[in-house]
Predict the 3D structure of the following.
Amino acid sequence: MVGFYHLTSLPILLLLVGLWGIFVIPFNLITILISLELLLLAASLNFIIFSIYLSGLIGQIFALLILTVAGAESAIGLAILLSFYRLRGEITISSLVSLKAS
C-alpha cells in the first residue's frame, strides 16, 4: 500500500523543480511561467492528498480553485508574452527593463 510519505514526495519534487526553474535558470519568461505553474500544481496536489488523508472535501475544492487560477494565469501570461514578443522580437528577462514606467 502506498503510504502518506510516498504520496507527499511527488508534490515536494514538483515544488523543488518549480523553485529551481524560477531561481536557478531564469533565462526567459516562458520557463518562469512554466515553473510557476509547477508550483501551483504542487500546492493543489498537497491539498488533494491532505483532503484524502483527512477525509475532507475542502482541500479538493481549494485544488479546483487553484487550478482555475492557474489556467487563467497561464492564458493571460501567454497573451502578454505573445504581444511582447511581437513588439520586441525576443522574450528575455533583460528586455523587461523597457517595460518599467519612468
About this structure: The radius of gyration is 17 Å. The chain is about 75% helix and 0% strand. Residues 48 and 61 are 9 Å apart (CA to CA).
